[in-house]
Amino acid sequence: MATEYGQGYGLDGGPVAPGSTERRRRLPAALRAPVGGRAWRELGHVLLGLPISILLFTYAVTTVSLGAGLLVTFLGIPVLAAALVGCRGFGALERRRARALLGLAVAEPEPLRRAEPGVVAWVGAVLASGASWRALLYCVLHLPWAVFSFVVAVNVWVLGWGLLTYPLWFWVLPMYAGQDGIQLYGDETHAIYLDNAFEVTVTALVGLLLTIAVPWIVRGLTTVDRLLVRGLLGPSRLASRVVELESDRGVVVDTAAADLRRIERDLHDGAQARLVALAMDLGLAKEKLQEDPEAAARMVDEAHGEVKAALRELRDLARGIHPAVLTDRGLDAALSAVASRCGVPVRVEVDLTERPAPAIEGIAYFTVSELLQNISKHARATWAGVEVWRTENRLMLQVMDNGVGGARVSRGSGLAGLAERLDVVDGILVVDSPAGGPTKVTAELPWRVERVR
After folding, report:
1. pLDDT of 75-122, one tens digit each?
2. pTM of the prediction?
3. Parallel, antiparallel, or unpaired for β 439-446 and 428-433?
4. For the chain, how many structural domains are there in total?
5. Which residues contact 255 (CB under 8 A, 6 or more apart)?
């Protein structure tokens, strides 16, 4: 999971220009709301909700009652399954209605899982599916709420617009109804009407306030509809978690494969090529040993330099896989070593009384390493800071710099890849990098105590 604040450079490129700012609206949001498209769509959702909920309630109660009554016979079970399938179909329509009118995108619930083909297996899958019963519950529960929200929305909407437009039509009452205006009070002796200019103006102002409040009242009513659709017609938490874990597993496999390809490429293009050249040089030196000892000595000296370079590349490669200092001495020493190789001065503060699990420790190390590498390449900073601490059961990392800022998490960027790696272990990446700097990247990882080996 990644959270982004600001725009700009990623691990794969240089600074990115900030986006254009939104044009200022002449009217505040409170005055635009009564005539805005969102307010009318939400009102339409409430108005459509009553007839649709009556249909859903009638279908659900009738079919489920029929199926329950027939349970004494064989027909009761398939009838009940068919009733649940119908409720799932109505749930799909309600999700589309919520998406179109409320802007609420809810994923489809988990599909039916049949152990084997056939009608019997299908009936069993329908009856065993939690999504089917949640859809039935939605069909039953939505009616009372739809009645309440319909009554409230229609009354406040009609009252608000009626009072607001009262100066335009109050003359209709004395002309066609035989009274002086809207009657506030009346008995056998006297009556109070809104009939003079001051009272008409006050009535219109009250109508204006009520009209401004109507969209927010309707929005509050549709909040309950959103909760019902998301909670009863969407996937369950368990199913969502299973999908998330399957996605994380795919990310882990892809990351491991990419790391293996990188290691193979580094070995093939680096140390392996040097060792091949070294073997050829030593072979030539062996042939010249008798004929030209001085030339052979020079070739052996060059081969000695190649050995040192190959060892250095192998050492860097091993450090990139998993540094020995991290295993032996922990995050404090490992991050200090990374900071010493950074292109800008880095202040490192590690406040940990114990070590987390090796997997979490490794992810934290490589997260800081990539962020410091990003600072060296793109930030144009003069200083950077790294802070590591523990908060309850979370390991917190924070990398700061005073560079040009504008870092962002975009698809395909290095920060996006880093966020995916953190997400595999339920970690979070937060980027706060306004244009012009400074940049602050915070990573949050689960704290898992290192097991005794």
Report:
1. 888 889 899 989 999 999 999 999 999 888 888 877 777 666 777 787
2. 0.54
3. antiparallel
4. 3
5. 420, 421, 424
